[in-house]
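Bug #77: duplicate submission created two jobs. Keeping one. Sequence:
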Amino acid sequence: MKSHLKILTVLAIIFSSILPSCSKDKDENKTETIVGNWTFKDVAAKDIQTNKASNDAKFTNYLLTTLRNENEGYTYSFSADGVLQTQIGSSSANVNYTFTNNILTLDDDGVKTELKARLENGLLILKLDEKDNYQNIELDKLLEMGITDIDFEVNKAVVTLHLERKK
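Kept job's structure:
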């Protein structure tokens, strides 16, 4: 009888340590999804470089301010059937999307764009390369930034766009 009691006690100890870890494993294996409504939270500079180091901070500030202003107020709705609707006020647009292996592929009538994307701490973080969008900045914009170099060039302009689930 005492040996049965010892075995039951040992089994109880083993199961009490295994069961909580099983439920934790189950939670950790749960796949997060981008399906749902998201709103713009912020943008962060990751790798910004111009052709003159003295212009990097000025351009970074301009770029982040511009991207914040452009994205403020947007809602991004990812449906389970692969349609992304972007909306601001009464204006909206739809594109098809897939999200596989941390790559968000947007398909706008056959024009495909791939973005690195990840879910982290309740945020959807999109990695954007904005270099090509800022190669031909008008002179008045350069002067606003405090850049007087006529030969100004953007070498790198990688940012992350942070979206949070709409409550």
